[in-house]
Amino acid sequence: MAGLAGLSVLPASAQDDIATAPPAPGDYLVFAGGEDRTTPLTPDSLVPNAGQVQAWPVDPATDTVRNGTLYNLLVLTRWDPAVLSPEGQEYAAEGVVAQTAICTHAACEVTDWIADSFHMECPCHFSRFDPRQNGAVIQGPATRKLPALALAMEDGRIVVKAPFDGRVGGDTA
Ligand code: FES
């Protein structure tokens, strides 16, 4: 049976291990939804000042998508770097920032977008987070920011520069 990477010769168990391992420096990113789930993302893959899109990290050595756990699901947004907080600027790659898609309250996916304020909202209990401030909590019940991934550019692609800056998952579930 073909693996996720198609050409991979890894045993299934090894591929599972890679798919469930957390994002690591050098991983590239692909869209989690839509038709194209294999092309490495660049800044131009994202519409500036628009709502979050979901993405997965990919192990570059094996082209294995790390979609073995929802804790690896990311939300990406793209901004003029000037509107990012100082910390956000440090984490961004050409204005693109990445946070976990998993709410820090009770681990729902943060899927909603409040266009008026440029905030992401969790549909479960309506916590809001600011992607321009490195995932800061704007409105509870969540009390902890969305863990973020520092990004970098490599050969025109967006890649992970550092692991998550906090524990991914909910505080009450
Ligand atoms: S799980 Fe997100 S606000 Fe409760």
TrEMBL record:
GO MF annotations, alphabetized: 2 iron, 2 sulfur cluster binding; metal ion binding
Record keywords: 2Fe-2S, Disulfide bond, Iron, Iron-sulfur, Metal-binding
Segments forming domain Rieske: 56-160
Cofactor(s) essential for the protein: [2Fe-2S] cluster
Cellular component GO terms, alphabetical: membrane
UniProt KW Ligase keyword: no
PANTHER family in alphabetical order: CYTOCHROME B-C1 COMPLEX SUBUNIT RIESKE, MITOCHONDRIAL
Protein name (Swiss-Prot/TrEMBL): Rieske (2Fe-2S) protein
Organism of this sequence: Pelagibacterium lacus
